[in-house]
Design a protein that fits this description.
Ngn-2_bHLH; DNA-binding; mainly alpha; HLH_DNA-bd_sf; bHLH_transcription_factors; transcription regulation; rod-shaped; 7 helices
Length: 229
DNA sequence: TAGGCCATCTGGTCCT
DNA sequence: AGGACCAGATGGCCTA
């Protein structure tokens, strides 16, 4: 949804680029990576086929005789020597695997970004269409969850009276806030830096929901919480 | 123009 | 062996 169009280079484009640069013998038809791999496997097979002695085709005349005992297939003599060709083939296979890995990595990152977009969708922002950066999204989500949790806890405590006997369903006082686990052990989110810090950046916060007001209250101290770093 | 953010490539490591 | 995951490097785009 929010994935930038220009970033979505197709594998074919990718290979076009890379084949042009990396491959010693760029194919004119620009195969997909699967096709390219197939082609490489074919090439490997061809290498193997070339290995056994050539068919002793007897050609008329003396020159034919010579070819009959010859070690080399006539049409195959062009091009690089065998060792070089083998190295080239290895290179091409390596290259092909790299391209496939690149594709997978790209897809993986796209999935990650899609998940991040989904997360953005459920986070309140102001203005509505403001796009949080990745780090802002993660920090805000973390804080938002923590604030909602606290809200639930306080609401539960209020409903149950001072002894608060039944806060079982919600985190008990002193239970690690999301922040503490997030930050790798730092104590609960520090009471308030400026509200915008909740969003991990210099953007204005969204509308002050109950949860956010809660969070603001918790964050009322003058230092930047470690989990914001 | 410097700095922030991002997408992509790449090689290494771990897992199945 | 092949795929997933990760972190570093690189280059493009955008904004103050």
């Amino acid at each position: 949804m929010l994935v930038k169009a220009e970033v979505l280079a197709t594998p074919a484009e990718d290979e076009l680029l890379l084949l042009g640069l990396g491959s010693p013998a760029p194919s004119p038809s620009l195969p997909s990576s699967a096709e390219e791999e197939e082609e490489e496997e074919e090439e490997e097979e061809e290498e193997l086929r070339a290995a056994p002695p050539a068919r002793p085709v007897e050609a008329p005349g003396g020159r034919g005789l010579r070819r009959a005992e010859g070690k080399r297939r006539p049409g195959r003599s062009r091009g690089a020597p065998r060792a070089a060709r083998t190295a080239e083939t290895a290179q091409r296979i390596k290259r092909s695997r790299r391209l496939k890995a690149n594709n997978r990595e790209r897809n993986r990152m796209h999935n990650l970004n899609a998940a991040l977009d989904a997360l953005r969708d459920v986070l309140p922002t102001f203005p509505e269409d403001a796009k949080l950066t990745k780090i802002e999204t993660l920090r805000f989500a973390h804080n938002y969850i923590w604030a909602l949790t606290e809200t639930l806890r306080l609401a539960g405590a209020a409903r149950l009276g001072p002894d608060g006997a039944a806060a079982a369903a919600v985190p008990a006082e002193g239970s690690p806030s999301p922040a503490s686990s997030w930050s790798g052990g730092a104590a609960s989110p520090a009471p308030s830096a400026s509200p915008r810090l909740i969003f991990g950046g210099d953007r204005e916060p969204p509308e002050p929901t109950a949860a956010k007001l809660e969070a603001d209250q918790e964050m009322r101290v003058g230092q930047t919480p470690p989990w914001m770093m």
